[in-house]
Amino acid sequence: MKSTHNLAEFQQVGRDFALGLTPLLDRATVVGLYGDLGAGKTTFVQAVAKALGVSETVNSPTFLIFKRYQLPVTGSGYSSLVHIDAYRLKNSDELRRLRFSELLADPANLILVEWADRVADLLPKHHHQLHFEFVDDTTRRISFS
Ligand SMILES: Nc1ncnc2c1ncn2[C@@H]1O[C@H](COP(=O)(O)OP(=O)(O)OP(=O)(O)O)[C@@H](O)[C@H]1O
Ligand SMILES: [Mg+2]
């Protein structure tokens, strides 16, 4: 568990997390981001994306379900960062229809899922789970499991 006391500290946790990731051999790396509205999930994804070399602006893909960003060839070992926001999904069917299983099958994908609990049945049982908690305007608690 980590507490961050300002945005810069929080972003540093995102950078450190990103730099600690390595591709798996047989499937995509999946990171589930759990926590209430405004807890910092998108902000965390933005920090991860920046650390891995994404230069485009990463916005919340709420109305698109997911967005894919190319990653630089040298660096993390991943070729794409996929940002999913499951907030407006009632269940996992919509994501299933978007051929989510193909994304999951590719070790070159790093997949970050906001509101991961809404699509829990589609995620690999073992994935990185990050829980974000709003404490006050500037303070967040992040726990890893
Ligand atoms: N660690 C932080 N310190 C201060 N402000 C933060 C921090 N993290 C996020 N914020 C601010 O809180 C607001 C909401 O953050 P963010 O969009 O990342 O939350 P979210 O968990 O993705 O919310 P949603 O569930 O709506 O997608 C933003 O204005 C962001 O700048
Ligand atoms: Mg968000």
Question: What report would you give on this structure?
Answer:
The protein has one domain: Rossmann fold. The protein is 24% helix and 26% strand. The chain has 4 helices and 7 strands; from the N terminus they run βαβαββααβββ. It has a 7-stranded mixed β-sheet with strand order 1-7-6-2-5-4-3. α1 (7-19) crosses α2. The longest helix has 13 residues, at 7-19. The termini are close together. The model has no long low-confidence stretch (mean pLDDT 95). Adenosine-5'-triphosphate binds at residues 4, 7, 10, 35, 37-43, 60, 114, 138, 140. Magnesium ion (MG) binds at residues 41-42, 60, 85, 114.
Describe the structure using short key phrases:
single chain, 145 residues, alpha/beta, Rossmann fold, 7-stranded mixed beta sheet, 4 helices, 7 strands, 24% helix, 26% strand, globular, binds adenosine-5'-triphosphate, binds magnesium ion
